[in-house]
Amino acid sequence: MQQGYVIGVDVGTASARAGLFDLQGKRLAIAAEPIQIHRPQHEYAEQSSEDIWRAVCKVVRQVADEARVHPEAILGIGYDATCSLVALDENDQPISISPTGDPQWNIIMWMDHRAVAETEQANAGDYEALRYSGGALSPEMEPPKLAWLRNHMPETFERAGKFLDLADFLVYRSTGNNLRSECTMGCKWTYLPAEKRWDMRLLQDLGIESILERGRAGEAILPLGSSAGNLTPQAASELGLSSNTKVAIGIVDAHAGTIGLLGAVWAGQPEPRLEKLEHSMALIAGTSSCLMALSQQPRFVQGVWGPYYGAVLPTMWMNEGGQSAAGALIDYTLEHHRQYPALELKAEREGVSIYEAANRIVDELARELPYPALLTRRLHVLPDHYGNRAPYADPHARGVVDGLTLDVSLNALATLYYATLQALAYNIRDVLRAMSEAGYQINVIHVTGGSAKNRYWLRETADITGCRVVVNREPEAVLLGSAILGAVAAGAYPDIPAAMHAMAMPDIVIEPNPATRDYHAVKFELFRELYQQHKARREAMRRFA
What we know:
By secondary structure, the protein is of the alpha/beta class.
């Protein structure tokens, strides 16, 4: 095996991060830099590719400096990012996608929901691509966003020389090679990588088929694990690296986390066996959450994205459930309560996070109970405040809280927070239910992200789903996943499974508490009823829209 180091870069919703790893998966340095979010109107969210590249260069330089690693020793770099749409003109300069007309805002973010009408237009048709997207596209995906640009900003749509998923933009900026990833294009653009073709009828009906002309959607679409080429001299200079560094084909952020997590299923085994992956799920819990499951055969799950071929491993299919608001919902629940300042003060005095401060209140409230979950027996939450990504693919869904009282105490805030943690876990259970009906038999969940640091989130996820929950040795699994791709692109490992096996290891295991099984079974049925009742009320009011 080669000696050297690799870097993983993750561009999330609010920051760019980099991690430098050795080839055994040990992280030697990490850095983060905020990136801007522009919100010109309700439901709009925009970013700047120049701002993001600035942040990426800064964090890559920082990790190399912190680890005191010579640039020539860095063999490869991998990029992951949110599924945000980047627009460049024919000279590779930013072109505005914003109602402000300001060219610095040239990215429609993943969470931008301006394209709901275009999404509904796509979902009303009998398109082959929908079958591979859980039966429905999301406004988070790129075809609706492209159709919105064509409908509302036709000059921008026609002038654009390139449209890129954000991860593919980072690869292009690094190498100068106009390439795309089977992961980004298959999962977010409706490309069919198993057959290496597009659903042309969908593109034509949306009026966006011209993206396939003049390299506007790339000159080639390559599988994960491929090298996109070396860093250009300019990119190497800006990143503080060597032009000998190989650049991996890009990947969506949650999919990188899946690579960084699921190698742990082979811990203690002499070699990776792909079939073992079919019983595990990767849960990437951030602002939103993604629930990733792999299979050797395609499995069609209504309301769950996929099956996508090659989205994580070149020979396997993937289904992706998700929560459009996860960490964001927890923060919203806390921050919009009148007792939030008191909770902040408690956290500061005790030297803990705001979440642990709330957890300690839950500890006190549950002291005399057989198990803490009983605190919410009269409080039920539907966590669809920002729509339901899975298993109902319903962007119009909204949140529900059943059981509110006039209690405005700190205890009431902690209980509502706890019920919200449970609601997110019930949604995970609902996704697992839909997947099991399609043939999955998942009994282990590997987790990463900010919520994985929250002990009550871990406990409720295990108890409510009935799955063993595993936290890996490397908590930054998304960065590790991108670094693994960098290692494979550099030739340090022959393929992605071999690199996963060598670089990912489990650490903490949470077993579900069987004493809570009946309680959560009842609450889960009530949870599912909440959605159906909400949907029925929404339908009853439709004629007044």
